[in-house]
Amino acid sequence: MREAPCLHHCQSKLFFSLRLHCPRCAPGALPPPLLAQWGPGYRQPAPGTGIVVKMSGGGSEPERPQFLFVKALASRGRLEAVTQQMGYHPRYLDSFLKTQHYLLHMDGPLPFDCRHYIAIMAAARHHCRYLVNLHVLQFLRAGGDPQWLRGLDFIPPKLRNLSEINKILAHRPWLITKEHIEKLLKISEWSWSLAELVHAVVLLAHCHALASFVFGCGCEQEEGPGGRGSLKPSPPGNQCFCEAAMGNGCGQELLRINRKRVSPRVGLRGRGWHGKLRTSRRHRPSAGSPHSDTDGEVTGAANLACYLQDPDFGYQDFARRDEEQTQVFRDYSWEDHGFSLVNRLYSDIGHLLDEKFRMVDGLQSSAMAKRQGCEPSVFKRGIWNYIHCMFGIRYDDYDYAEVNHLLERMLKVYIKTVTCYPEKTNPEMFDRFWKQFKHSEKVHVNLLILEARMQAELLYALQAITQYMVS
């Protein structure tokens, strides 16, 4: 027998211990939804006896979900629903967490607060309150200006200029051109460098695709009054991490820190990021703003429209008659072109992304494929190619008639909804449309959607950057 990890705060530092149960929590066990994520082989005893788990044999420690959950908690101070869902596939989760940590927290071209603001802009395109709220807290924790949370009119023009490609990549990535790239890179007070732009593009694609996963797995449905959408302020010292794992924020301390900031940061970390804003800084936040100084709730996603440019712009079916554009894309691939370009301009991210793409392709899906009457590789390739086809990417060596044979109609409806307009996904779609699939298999399909969509967006953006560089 081995005890399940219970995580608590000790002497104002992130300190984690494997204990029978946290002394600051009610006796008993973690809530069933969280316990279920530890994977097969775990069981919960009678109430009041603590958490006892039965470990299955084999597997190294880094592959076990609980160790990855501890890593996620150490990094972000909470165990998000996304991490719990991905815990059904711990090898992929490990790769995902490494990539996300590198994008958001390691040295790179973009300032840390700007990374989280770009993530807010990306998540808002799909009205994903779950991700917006997470990155609002991270933005403030990174020292971000609370004024920016009032919307695009309150951010530097350099960031605001990213709205156009954010909109295009989120909904119709095939429309992005070298002219969009040139507009951002042209010499001016608010110009981007190539390295900064590549970092931003990867962040946008990452968050757009992650929004699909959030809606596809029902994480967004957990939002709402009293749920993860309402970030309850409480000082970190008064909150144990068992509570944090279930969604309570530490917004009050973050806001206390940010209230001390009395002047804008101009040019602290590079030209253009913290310059003069369009709107006077004398306009202070109202009580209902995302960064309210009151003791009420921190509602970072109260009005997502403030982060959107052209909110009515959405997905439209790719025009198959545009054979010229489709043909061009047959000559541009991740393996031969995208990987080397992104790795050259944003060191090491190409390797992390490539590992993640390969990891999702290598996940076991024999039972899922057997029910569909095909080999696992055939089933996964059918889903991947169907998603790419919706974005105008087709492969000469694939018979697209197989898609209708491999994927039943309701599954295709689900995949298209989650991929193209995830905000229209409802809980019934996850539960009812494919009852023959286990929960872990549904998560697997959503991981395929996440990675296929992200790669499609990256291909279009990186192709446009390549065309700009050679023109």
UniProtKB/TrEMBL annotation:
Catalytic activity as recorded in UniProt: a hydroperoxide + L-cysteinyl-[protein] = S-hydroxy-L-cysteinyl-[protein] + an alcohol
Keywords for the protein's UniProt record, in alphabetical order: Cytoplasm, Oxidoreductase
Location(s), subcellular: Cytoplasm
One term of GO molecular function: L-leucine binding
Domain of life: Eukaryota
Keyword Lipid biosynthesis (UniProt): no
Record's GO cellular component terms: cytoplasm; nucleus
Annotated stretches, region: Disordered: 277-296
Primary location recorded for the protein, binned into one broad class: cytoplasm
Record carries keyword Membrane: no
One Pfam family of this chain: PA26
Gene Ontology biological process terms from the UniProt entry: cellular response to L-leucine; cellular response to leucine starvation; negative regulation of TORC1 signaling; positive regulation of macroautophagy; regulation of response to reactive oxygen species
Entry's family note: Belongs to the sestrin family.
Name recorded for this polypeptide: Sestrin 3
Organism listed in the record: Pavo cristatus
Organism phylogeny: Eukaryota, Metazoa, Chordata, Craniata, Vertebrata
